[in-house]
Design a protein that fits this description.
Number of domains of chain B: 1
Distance between the termini of chain B: 41 Å
Largest sheet of chain B: none
Number of helices of chain A: 8
Number of strands of chain B: 1
Strand content of chain A: 15-25%
Shape of chain B: elongated
Distance between the termini of chain A: 36 Å
Order of helices and strands of chain B: HEHHHHHHHHHHHH
Largest sheet of chain A: 6 strands, mixed
Number of helices of chain B: 13
Oligomer: heterodimer
Radius of gyration of chain B: 26 Å
Helix content of chain A: 25-40%
Radius of gyration of chain A: 22 Å
CATH superfamily of chain A: P-loop containing nucleotide triphosphate hydrolases
Number of strands of chain A: 9
Largest interface: A-B, 70 and 46 residues
Helix content of chain B: 55-70%
Strand content of chain B: under 5%
CATH class of chain A: Alpha Beta
């Protein structure tokens, strides 16, 4: 390939997000710990009351700078570090190495977790909305819009545990998108719901992207990445593989996935 | 396309990503940028807490509403819980063991009522404080907010419960007058219940924050808590006047420096004995400021860690 697709020289615009050699390492505790007896009398490495853990390098040395107006897609296999990268940029998980700079606190549209199963949908809107920093007055003003958007008018005063999972995710989506931050991050888990709701939520995301300064979008739906994004980051095992225009990067990722599939098939035939 | 390599690597037909050329001092070069994941300065942190105050109230009120939704008696349980607690302790210690009339407790039932209601506020604050971070792990991992809002909201919830319990306590105290010689009278001292509750709220919040962080690092704390609280319960003179039972002066001094004991004492002094003892108020006051400051400081030191999986 030619050298023309390398990241273009930076225009003298102030970036909105900078990741500088970012590392995130998780400590994961093993589910089986040495028996008490072994801790006293066993091998040297068992003789410790520190719980035993493994380190997972979820994000390794990622650097990039994002500018206002960019919509950046993040692609990669499951476990490649996409969600961890978003969380680290949003300041939600501590970074192990490197730095993140941002012009305002990035807001992550993850699956809003503030929801309480035992209280009504309406009160859950208050709960999630105030968690996102909206005031009660703001929420009162927007309540009708939010409820209308969910399409759950008849169920809004029922406790959440009576909701189906699709209804729940509608509510979560409506709450999460009730604020438009300057730096927006969308995790793929949001694209749930039936076909009719999916259209509405896609439109909403597009509106938010148009309003927000910089957008990060994690998705496995490559089409939505090429449709929406102006730039794509490809992560593989925590490392940045490519950073550039959507078409070539997505095409290369697609090739890579196809190749893996083909190899798998071959192995299966042999075995 | 690769010929000599054994296996194509992902993305090797694309140019390597070029890291952005960053100035030596990013913050100086781009004054609009802030470092993410650093603690806010204290003043900004407090301002941010204030901005989210409605969240601190919405969560606990929702929870309280949800708590007894499935029970037939519903919200009545907030009143019945302290009632049963008092009935059981009165039966065991007042009637079976016969504490009344001995060891300087003339009127045991009012003594017990105040002790249990007041201690219960601290007990439940610590228990829900210990659960708070672990319980809200998902919330912490998906939304950026000053984490101190979580212990604050758990304290709000316990305070609301306590405010339900106070009228119960008052009614109970006056109904003891019906049993035998009336001993409980309403005097101006009762107004002291307001500063007492404020002081107790302060040190409960400090404790909830400290225990909350501690329980985040060591989940074992939640298992251990009931025993620590049980010991504290007995050391704080809820059931009998510890000061009079123990003769050694140095143990008495240790017991008297216990924040829960001093709060319970000044509450009894005000409601039952119409007196104000300066040094007991001083001990309670010092503890409430110390614990609040320490708890907040200790909790905030780990501010950015709470999102760790």
């Amino acid at each position: 390939m030619s050298e023309t697709t390398t990241a273009p020289p930076r225009a003298p615009v102030a970036p909105t997000v900078i990741a500088d050699r970012l590392d995130v390492t998780y400590r994961v505790y093993a589910d089986s710990q040495p028996k008490l007896g072994k801790r006293f009398a066993g091998r040297k490495e068992d003789r410790s009351f520190q719980r035993q853990y493994q380190e997972v390098e979820a994000v390794r040395g990622i650097s990039f700078a994002a500018e206002p107006g960019e919509a950046i897609g993040i692609i990669g296999h499951n476990g490649s570090g996409k969600s961890t990268l978003l969380r680290a940029i949003a300041g939600l998980v501590p970074v192990t190495g490197g730095q993140v700079y941002a012009s305002s606190i990035p807001v992550l549209l993850g699956v809003a977790a503030a929801l309480e199963p035992d209280i009504s949908g309406r009160r859950n809107v208050y709960l999630g909305g105030t968690a996102l920093g909206l005031s009660k007055d703001d929420l009162d003003a927007r309540m009708d819009d939010i409820i209308e958007f969910t399409g759950l008018e008849d169920f809004i005063d029922l406790p959440l545990r009576a909701y189906s999972s699709g209804m729940r995710s509608r509510l979560q989506f409506a709450i999460a998108t009730s604020v438009t931050p300057e730096i927006l991050m969308v995790d793929e888990a949001l694209s749930t719901g039936d076909g009719e709701f999916k259209d509405r939520s896609d439109t909403r995301i597009r509106e938010m992207i148009a309003e927000a300064g910089t957008v990060f979008l994690v998705s496995h739906t490559l089409k939505s990445i090429t449709d929406v994004c102006t730039r794509v980051l490809w992560l593989d095992h925590g490392q940045l593989i490519a950073d550039g225009d959507p078409e070539p990067v997505v095409a290369a990722y697609q090739d890579h996935v196809d190749r893996l599939k083909a190899e798998r098939k071959k192995r299966k035939k042999k075995g | 396309m690769p010929t000599d390599e054994k296996r194509p690597q992902p993305g090797d037909d694309l140019p390597r990503p070029v890291p952005p050329a960053l100035p030596d001092d990013v913050l100086k070069a781009y004054p609009d940028l802030r470092r993410v994941g650093t603690k806010l300065p204290l003043r900004d942190y407090l301002r941010e807490l204030w901005r989210r105050r409605e969240f601190a109230v919405t969560v606990p009120l929702g929870e309280l509403r949800a708590q007894n939704q499935d029970t037939a008696l519903g919200q009545l349980w907030h009143l019945l819980n302290p009632l049963f607690l008092i009935a059981i302790y009165y039966f065991v210690f007042g009637i079976v063991l016969g504490v009344e009339g001995r060891r300087g407790v003339d009127d045991y039932l009012p003594f017990l009522i105040v002790g249990i209601i007041v201690f219960n506020y601290t007990r439940s604050s610590m228990q829900s404080g210990a659960r708070m971070i672990v319980k809200n792990r998902k919330l912490v991992q998906s939304i950026n907010f000053p984490r101190a809002i979580l212990p604050i909201s758990s304290l709000v919830s316990e305070t609301v419960s306590h405010l339900y319990a106070i009228p119960v306590m008052v009614v109970l105290l006056f109904s003891t007058n019906l049993l035998d010689e009336p001993t409980v009278t309403l005097t101006w001292h009762w107004i002291l219940l307001v500063p007492i509750t404020v002081m107790q709220a302060m040190f409960n919040l400090g404790l909830a924050m400290a225990v909350g962080r501690f329980a985040f690092h060591f989940r074992d704390v939640q298992q251990f808590m009931p025993y620590a609280l049980r010991l504290w319960f007995y050391m704080s003179g809820v059931l009998y006047p510890v000061q009079d039972v123990i003769e050694q002066r140095w143990i008495q001094a240790i017991l008297a420096s216990n924040p829960a004991w001093s709060i319970i004492e000044i509450a009894r002094d005000s409601l039952l004995y119409q007196q104000v003892v300066g040094w007991k108020w001083a001990v309670a006051g010092i503890w409430s400021v110390l614990l609040l400051v320490f708890g907040f400081w200790y909790f905030r030191r780990a501010e950015n860690e709470y999102g760790r999986v």
